[in-house]
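In full, the data.
>
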Amino acid sequence: MAPLPSGGLMRRAAAGLARRLISLLADSGGVYGAPVVLLVGGGDNGGDALFAGATLARRGAVVRAVAGVQDERVHRGGLTALTAAGGRLVELGDVRERPALVVDGLLGIGGHGGLRPDGARLAQAAEAWRADGSLVVAVDLPSGVEPDTGEVTGSAVTADLTVAFGSYKVGLLVGEGALRAGLVEVVDIGLDFAEPPALRLVTADAVRGWWPHPGPTDDKYTRGVVGLASGSEQYPGAAILSTGGALSGPSGYVRYAGAARDAVRTAHPEVVCSPTVAEAGRVQAWVVGSGLGTDDDAAEAVRRILATDLPVVLDADGLTIVSKRLDWVREREGPTVLTPHDREFERLAGEVGPDRLAAARRAASELGATVLLKGYRTVIAGPDDAPAYVVAAGVPELATAGTGDVLSGVVGSLLAGGLAPAEAAAAGAFVHGTAGRLAAEAGPVVASRVLAHLPDAVRRVALGH
């Protein structure tokens, strides 16, 4: 901010916000005469909203500002600009007409601890207008959302669109904040960031750059061999789903070891099957746990695999087994990727809580592993200080039995193909989420349909076709 003249950053932010508001109004009947309500606090977000509102007013919109603070605390420059353009500061009760747009500028990234009573009253009004058809646009962050965690401790604004300045905020991507933010668009206001980010949003371009591609001299072994110890006589489907996930990854050879080998051979004749881990042959990475059971034989398979220095993906029953033997993970030489949902995480590292990023980081540090914390927004954290990843590609319908088995197979194939653990987890979660989205577009989502859409997801994302 230092090189900018006074107010320069706010003018850039307000101009970017105004452009987006104008485009929304143009799509819904035009700017001229459109009723717009600005909800403003005493900080810079309120100033951004007021300056943007002044631009709308000069184009003929009917702009009214409602303050969530005492009038004298409203941004003076922004209010002066609004009134000069024909807008007005009014009381909430003076707004008689349903607004086409509601602009939330109550709190920004400096706001913590939730909304105060006056702000909460305006958030409730915004929700009522939204239910009646108004579009709600948040300035940088929906008010009431903790910017660094996504936590909501009381009333908060739910936006259809959030216009974020300079970068995403963590609170827009994880926790309840991800549900409150709606569509998020980032406006470039010319900021440079000297520090590395806390969190990186995984994109298709990033996955495409990470994904291993075979060269002209590769063979099935050099592309990577992945081994899977999953499924059982009781749960053969888990073996079919996890090996199917592995087959859609970049590795050139898939080995299966376990009691469901006949079912795997029938479903996937490409997979080489063995009765036990000891007889499976050489691999470059292991996937263990999905549908394996938790008896002594299952525990021995997990122990044997974790005793190697190979990359290992632990899922489902494998997580249950190691939750009572965490030293098996902590003392490993090779990399480990853990793939828990919230209840599995609780057995490994305690309650997730509202700060999902901090929880994943804590578990990764304590266990010396990469943690893929599954959820509406999947968070991946490694045991080092590198930025974490968040995957926003999935859909809520993926919360169904067996989809995690597919995911673990994809991640294991990426590990066998030579990808680093955090990137393997992030890339696997992204293509898996994309497959879930494709399955949801086609009808009800079950794991076998996610698996069926996985090759198309890989084609679209990783191969760019």
About this structure: The first strand starts at residue 35 and ends at 40.
